[in-house]
Design a protein that fits this description.
Elements (H helix, E strand, L loop, with lengths): L9 H12 L5 H12 L9 H12 L5 H12 L6
Helix pairs in contact: 1-2, 1-4, 2-4, 3-4
Amino acid sequence: MSKNSKKSSPRVSSLASKVLRDKESSAIAKSLAASVISQAGSDKQSGAKMETKASQALQDKRLSKTTRTLAASVVSQSSNER
């Protein structure tokens, strides 16, 4: 399996940190934010389940721009083979 060397950008990592600290953030936003943070300083790739969750979030127009931004980051760091 090939490695994806993309990492979360400082801007998106900061956004993810704010989401995790916000008591009002949705469960999906917090889940995506945690994935973004875990990928910030490493070569970790998104898992298949998280990639699916992020893909669904991107397609859901009811979700906030913040949640969809986090989802886009997670998808961009998924395995190149999926």
